[in-house]
Specification:
Number of strands: 10
Largest sheet: 6 strands, antiparallel
Structural class: mainly beta
Helix content: under 10%
Order of helices and strands: EEEEEEEEEHE
Length: 118
């Protein structure tokens, strides 16, 4: 679903160049000369990097297909780290290559927010 700059607000997740971002800051600017624009700070949801991007007023971009779930870390096995959805009780393995350095901070029965993209 495409959204335009008038729908920007903090926390909105958008997709740019095939990567999901969350808007952490935005400002509508209407200079005395020239067209209006929106200045934003975007946090990449895959690697955590923050970038600044300027959009022309009315420019459209795709909303990111992102779902956030509260899950509980259970244990580690051959498939990876096992997490349980706290509402449906489904158990999902997540590989250590996806978790990266976060594996060092996981404790059994710890509740975490897991972000699913596409």
């Amino acid at each position: 679903m495409a959204i335009d700059t008038s729908q920007f607000k903090n926390g909105v997740k958008i997709e740019i160049d095939g990567n999901p971002f969350v808007i952490t800051y935005f400002q509508h600017v209407k200079p005395g000369k020239g067209g209006a624009f929106v200045r934003t700070k975007l946090k990449n949801l895959l690697n955590g990097r923050v970038v600044e991007k300027t959009f022309r007023s009315g420019e459209r971009c795709e909303e990111a297909d992102v779902e956030e779930k509260n899950m509980q870390y259970l244990y580690q096995d051959a498939e990876g780290r096992i997490f349980m959805d706290t509402t449906s009780y489904d158990q999902i393995p997540i590989g250590e290559d996806v978790l990266g350095d976060a594996t060092h901070f996981l404790l059994e029965n710890m509740e975490v927010d897991v972000l699913f993209w596409k």
